[in-house]
């Protein structure tokens, strides 16, 4: 049986805030970039983006600009 490492709520919350800040500043270019920065999988980043969207932020990805942004 593998040991699964999970992050605590505070760490997760801090990462959500930082991810949102990256998007707001136009610095989040890809899931791969974020997963490397946070040391987690792209699937985890997708779940984090879903959580941020559920909090009411309208996050979109622009294929032309190749980055995430918040739709107003």
Can you give me a brief rundown of this structure?
The protein has helices spanning about 10-25, 30-40, 40-55, and strands at about 60, 65-70. The chain has about 70 residues and is mainly α. The chain is about 50% helix and about 10% strand.
List the helices and strands and how they pair.
Elements: H1 9-24, H2 31-38, H3 42-54, E1 59-62, E2 67-70
Antiparallel strand pairs: 1-2
Describe the 3D structure.
The protein has 72 residues and is mainly α. It has one domain: Winged helix-like DNA-binding domain superfamily/Winged helix DNA-binding domain (Arc Repressor Mutant, subunit A, Orthogonal Bundle), CATH 1.10.10.10. Helices cover 51% and strands 11% of the residues. The chain contains three helices and two strands, in the order αααββ. A two-stranded antiparallel sheet has the order 1-2. A hairpin with a 4-residue loop joins strand 1 and strand 2 (67-70). Helix 2 packs across helix 3 (42-54). The protein is globular and about 35 Å long. The relative contact order is 0.16. The model has no long low-confidence stretch (mean pLDDT 89).
Q: Keywords for this structure?
A:
single chain, about 70 residues, mainly alpha, Arc Repressor Mutant, subunit A, two-stranded antiparallel sheet, 3 helices, 2 strands
Under the CATH scheme, the architecture is Orthogonal Bundle
Distance between the termini: 46 Å
Tally of DSSP β-strands? 2
Structural class: mainly alpha
Q: Give me the side-by-side strand order of the main sheet.
A: 1-2
Give the overall silhouette: globular
